[in-house]
Structures are given as C-alpha cells and as structure tokens.
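User: Can you fold this complex?
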Amino acid sequence: MPGKSFADVAAGYIDLTDSERAALTRLEERRRVLRRGTSIQRENEAGSGLHVLRRGLMMSYVLLQDGSRQILRFMFPGDLIGTATLIYDDATETTVALSEVVVCSIDRGALGAMFEEHPRLAALVFALSQVERVALTDRLAALGRTSAKARVGALLLEFRDRLGVERPSFSLGLTQEEIADATGLTAVHVNRMLRQLEEEALIERASGRVTMLDERALVRVANYVRRDTRLNLAWLPKPR
Amino acid sequence: MPGKSFADVAAGYIDLTDSERAALTRLEERRRVLRRGTSIQRENEAGSGLHVLRRGLMMSYVLLQDGSRQILRFMFPGDLIGTATLIYDDATETTVALSEVVVCSIDRGALGAMFEEHPRLAALVFALSQVERVALTDRLAALGRTSAKARVGALLLEFRDRLGVERPSFSLGLTQEEIADATGLTAVHVNRMLRQLEEEALIERASGRVTMLDERALVRVANYVRRDTRLNLAWLPKPR
DNA sequence: CGCAAATTTGAACGTAGTCAACAAGTGTGG
DNA sequence: CCACACTTGTTGACTACGTTCAAATTTGCG
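Assistant: Here's the predicted assembly.
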C-alpha cells in the first residue's frame, strides 16, 4: 500500500460512505517520491499547492533576516501540507523532506469541489485544521514559557505520540540542530539538555535511538499535554 | 450598528449572495455585552462554544504548571472565537475580554448546516482559519528566534495593523504584563524594551498611547512581516 | 483625595548563547 | 576496502540577554 492517505485519516474519525471514499481517492493525484533534503515549497516562491504526505517525515520552517531558522512543524504520514498556499500566492514557509518521502498533490479546484459535493468531508478538513491549530498553540506556550529542558522533552514526547510507537524506544530521525531550530535553542544547548535528561535517568540514547525510561516524569518536566485524540464531531453535516 | 459581524468580514473577501448573507445573519445568535475581565471560556472547562467578537478587544491564553501565562492570541472585531471548542469538549484555552466587548454566539449545529447549505461560506471559513494559522506561525518564529526588542516591536506593529488605524498614533489597551505574557518576556523587561525603542526614536509614549515615529525602522528591528490582506480565493466553489 | 494597580529603575543572578576545539560518525571516491 | 572530507555530536570557558527581587514612583479610579 502506498502509505497513509488522507482517506485513511478521515476513516479514522468517521465512517466514510462509498461516495465520500471515492471523492477522497480522486482528490490525491500525482504520487511522487522525494529524497531527503528535497523541498516541495520554498518561502516567498510561488506556491506549489496542496499535498498529502503519504510516507516518511517532513518539516516546514521559515528563515529570518539574520539567517536563523525556526522550524514550525513536523509532518507525519496522512498530514496535509501547504494548506496556507491555498490562500497566499507565495508560500509562507519552506517544506522539505527529512527522510525519503512519498507525497501526493491535491488540486485547489478539487478541494473547492469537495466543499460543494461533500460537506461532511469539508467540515472534517476544517476540524482537523483545528487540531493543528491547537498543536501550534501548545508549541507557542512551550517556546514562550518553558525551560530549554522542558522544550526538548516535549519534542521527544510529541514525536513518540505522533510516530504512534507503543514501545518506549524509537528513532527520532532529527539532528540536534533540527531539534534546536524547532525548540528555539542552539544545537549546543540541545546537546546539554539531552545529556541532562539522560543523567536524570529520564531517557537513554544509543545510535540515534531514544528510549524513554520514565515517561511519567518526562511528561512532568516537559509540561507536556497529551491532547485527546477523540474529537467531538457530532456537529458534522450528513454524509453524501 | 452592532459592531463588526462575521458577515461583514466575509463581505470584505467575496460578494455575498442574498441567500448567503441571510445564512450568515442567522448564524449569529444571542448578543451579549461583557465587561473587561469577563471570560467566555476557561481552560479545561466544558466549552461554551463558538462566538464572534463584534466589538472590543479580547485575548486567549493558557496557564502553565508554575502559574505562568502564555497569551496565544488577541481578538479583534469580526474574529471567530473558540473554533477549537468545536472539536474538543473541554476548552484548550481561556478567553477573556480586555475591554468592554460585544459577542454573539454561534451554534455548532448551525455551523454544520452552513457547511451543507453554503459550501462557499464554509470554504471561506476554512480559508480564514489559514490566515490565523499563518499569524500563529509568525508568532512562533518571533518567540523562537527573535530578540526581546523585536518581539515587543512586532506586537506594536501587529496591533496597529489589526486595529486598522492609519494614524501613527493609537491606544494599545494592554498592560506591560500582558505584552510580556504575549511575547514570552517579563513585565520588567518589556518596560526596558519600550524605553529602548523610545530612546532610539522609533516610538513615543504618552498616557497609554503609542506613536510610531519611524515605522520603516521599527519593521526592520522587529523582523515584522506584513502579510498580504488579499487572499487567493479563486478555488472557492460557486455561491448559492 | 486615597488606594490599588501599573510602571519604572537598580543590582545581582542565571539560563542559554557564543566561540573554539576535538571526537565520532557517515558517506564517497579512489 | 580504505582514506579523506564533511557532517554531527561533545565538551569547556566565557559572555550576554533576559530574569529576579526589591523599592520607589506614577497613574488611574472610586
């Protein structure tokens, strides 16, 4: 199977009708494989439109005047990419592959048609954009009001949750510089914080893998909020 | 007139049909006046639903374990409030009035019906949620990668833009502590930064009002990006 | 006018950044 | 298959931006 489609994501929240499933399947076009480092949209360049990440890991970031970078988001399979390019002609952020990835593109017009023909799917897309909004505000609170150690810990926990691993051990797939640019720190300080988490026996590291030794304690020091994955979707319109 | 309705906002982006205008007018119910300090939703309490801010200024924030506060967003007339309560039963953030405000509530079911009956309005609501998403990522980059002076400057510029004042002089309506909680700083340091901006002749302050003396220079030190208010809405479905 | 909230200022402190050097991986081509 | 180059990770010494604490002053209200 070609990774996780948006239809798969939707099916995780609602029971899709045949017609809805067909519409979602039609939505995802041109399947492409990108190698690590390839970007599908670049800040201030004409937007390359909407995509779905099928497989692999991506990130989006902005570059500031002084050359520093802020990573805004990591994308996991099933995530929509470039929803902001729907309304801005120039991309507001750069999106690149962190591993080999598979992406499918979605035509703007096709999305418009979906709003017309499948109101329930449209409402679900909107609902899921709210999930992402809450994730962004969680991150905002972390950057504004928590310590370096907490931010690094929160990133580890977020990855574990989003990668959907039950094991306490997983491969992060990020360099310390990438962790730094996501948490608003320097690579040097990230290194010290990882070491500190390790010394406090909260995590263990070996050959690129992270093991959570005391998840409860990590959640505490990281000020991490695990958001409910069950959404209230009772207000969604009738399916077609 | 009862302030700025969501219909007014929508009309700024698209030419509303009579039927669309009627639907939007029906959407906004129970008009309420709240005095400064009143909250309409509290973190972790059952959500009070969706609202439109008609008049005045509001903010939403989260409180962390240690009692510190991160202000996530300021709301201006015409803004939707509590879109996240659509999907989470408990509010993820607290929303309070910063001045005397007028709000109207929107029923969840009515929004669902709007997705069904007025696909173009639904798509516009989604598009506007993307504008807010970009504003959040701008803020994230500011907190993660810019100096205290830049963050305070950016907040001043954001308020000038959102208040829609052409004059360089306007009343901010925030305490320095509120500025601090929005920018991830302390009130003491915000005070020093404001003073510094004043000493550098970028702004002037008098009795709660701010005057921008050199906006171009302020934009530069603040690393401020003024987002295009013209949106690409060509993909919107046909109106009904 | 009187009180509480908000602002202002100074001094000392601490978290995270900077700079620099070295070590350990990683990948590539000879 | 190894040698070399480059990226990534690690550590130490020093610096600096922003915090903390405390006290004085101003402002806005009732």
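Chain A touches chain B through 59 residues (CB under 8 Å). Residues 147-148, 185-186, 188-189, 192, 207 of chain A lie near DNA strand C (CB under 10 Å from a C1').
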